[in-house]
Amino acid sequence: MSFLLSAHSSHYPHEIFMDANATTPVLPALQELMSKVYQTHYGNPSSPHYAGIRAKRVLNDTRNAGAHLFACEPDQIIFMSGATEGINTAVLSVLQSYAGGKGKGCYLLYSATEHKAVPEALRHWNTLLQVEAEVMAIPVDREGQIDLEFLRAHVGDALMICTMGANNETGVYCDLAALEREIRALRSDIPWLVDCVQMLGKRPIALGKTTIDYAPFSAHKLYGPKGVGALYVRTGAPFTPLQTGGGQERGLRGGTENVAGIAALGQIFTWLNDRAISPFQDSETLYGYRQTIIDALQSAFPKLTLNQPLDRSLATTINFSVAGYSSSELIAIFDAAGIRVSAGSACSTGGARSFVLDAMGLPTWQSEGAIRMSFGPAFSQADLDTLCERLTFIRDKITGANPWGQGALYIPDPMTSGSAWIMCRTTQQALALTDSPDVMQGIESCCPETDWQIQVWNKESQDFAGFRLHREANGVRITALATERSIQLTDAGIVVAHTPSPKLMAVSEFNCEQMTFIDVREQSEALAQYHEYPSPCLQTIPRALWCDYVLRAEPEGSPRPIFFCRSGNRATEVARLALSVGWQDACACNAAASEVFDWLRRQKTPVE
Ligand code: PLP
């Protein structure tokens, strides 16, 4: 149990979770309900005794609430582990009758922006059953709507069509009634799956009044637990169980039901049936929230571009890119300020770009730099206020302050370039090592208030602002006068040739009493750090000041220095630089600052 305890020991009070399209936290009311179910409705719903009957009642109540919400019959709802299972069940149900090459020459159509569970399920069952159909994406337009011409041209030879109610990355929703008219005008019989995962709680879904054949849902997208969901199946649609067993769900889905999870799902359905008793905001309020967030984002990032049509997308999803920032930079900036966002689908973490935005034909920089900020309908005015306060904080840090204000030695790319300058605040003088444009621009960004005197170094040797510069055959030697530590700077950066790589430490090895923590993240990310560093953390050093720091800091006698950054690359470089100028000890760590701080806080306040 210790791993659970340590995970629970921090309640992450400063976290603003803006990744609701990936998943949502379980609402306290649902946690309580589930805990009650575990205590009182622990029976197996298939048992004939009263404990079993009580559990069975939970399933029936949820089914009835779902039937009311979807305007369908209770037995059209089958409980499952989530949407992925629902999608696989639907695909298997349709394809099993085409097994053994009977689908040759036919299409399995899906919209190009579909969650990958859909095309993957189509490919998987097509191959496994040897259907031999062609899995084909229906293109979408710039606004994410499917190409109806393409659909009309291919639906005649299709075995199945899969579309989505609302897209998980962009929030773009579909006019299902209009699409239904198109599909049914051409093929009254074609099995039609609509992925309704992101629609639940956000768009009306009267499934029983449509000709949709299959509609999968997942409870965790609307404050329920993970691992439970449902599949709506139209009466008369082909059906084959994905798993068989003890006859549960009238033999349609074997396996003892997740009673507590289904109870939570039932409560969610009940809230959606009567929003007045629910914790959910009405859609007008949510649209208002979205606009307020967009305004705050635009104020922090004036070059922000939206990647979705606002009038055809959910109130709870904002997808944007910012010229000049990659999505990983933006995620890191938001993360530092305690705002959790994603670069698109949670399932595509690590992918360099968004296939959804690519399918919509957006420019590469938008697709590569996309950020999805999503919230759920239980988002409150207080949540909004906190979020906007953080966004204002980011804005002030990024656009306002002059982060390079102090006098110091600046080497912006110490490992790859010889560009460098020294600034002296007291005399308002800057010494440029060369007159190259990047050095001049760098000095200007350090002192935008301008009346600094800039000289270009043209001597053999010179002392300036606590440093000695000395020309050598292979560049320049820069020595800190106070410590006598020095570096050799060449056109290709600092020479650290014979210095061994520093030890890479894990966060779990940290001991806040015996170590000093030095944050070497990118400047914009470190600036956005919202919460104060737990006390033993020494400071943040931007890349341009790494050399200044290792030359002038006084590590000897102080606790063991640990440099950290998310990838570990920068941290390793600075630690190596520190060792190369004579530090006795310097370690690197590849951990996100939030993780480091969280660990340090927990060490200071251990769990009972
Ligand atoms: N479909 C969509 C649109 C989704 O957003 C998701 C979840 O990310 C899924 C399907 C799969 O849901 P689950 O992982 O809960 O099975």
A few lines on this structure:
The protein is an alpha/beta fold and 608 residues long. The protein has four domains: 76-258, Aspartate Aminotransferase, domain 2 (3-Layer(aba) Sandwich); 283-399, Aspartate Aminotransferase, domain 1 (Alpha-Beta Complex), CATH 3.90.1150.10; 407-495, no CATH class; 503-604, Oxidized Rhodanese, domain 1, CATH 3.40.250.10.
Report on this structure.
A hairpin with a 4-residue loop joins β14 and β15. By secondary structure, the protein is an alpha/beta fold. The chain has a 5-stranded antiparallel β-sheet. A 5-stranded parallel β-sheet has the order 22-26-25-23-24, with helices on one face. It is built from 18 helices and 26 strands. It has 4 domains: 183 residues, Type I PLP-dependent aspartate aminotransferase-like (Major domain) (Aspartate Aminotransferase, domain 2, 3-Layer(aba) Sandwich); 117 residues, Aspartate Aminotransferase, domain 1; 89 residues, no CATH class; 102 residues, 3-Layer(aba) Sandwich (Oxidized Rhodanese, domain 1). The chain binds pyridoxal-5'-phosphate (PLP). The site of pyridoxal-5'-phosphate has 13 residues, from α4.
Q: What's the β-strand tally?
A: 26
Proportion of beta-strand residues: 15-25%
Question: Any idea what the CATH superfamily of the largest domain is called?
Answer: Type I PLP-dependent aspartate aminotransferase-like (Major domain)
- Tell me the Rg in angstroms: 29 Å
Rounded to the nearest angstrom, the distance between the terminal CA atoms is 13 Å
User: How are strands sequenced across the largest beta sheet?
Assistant: 17-18-19-20-21
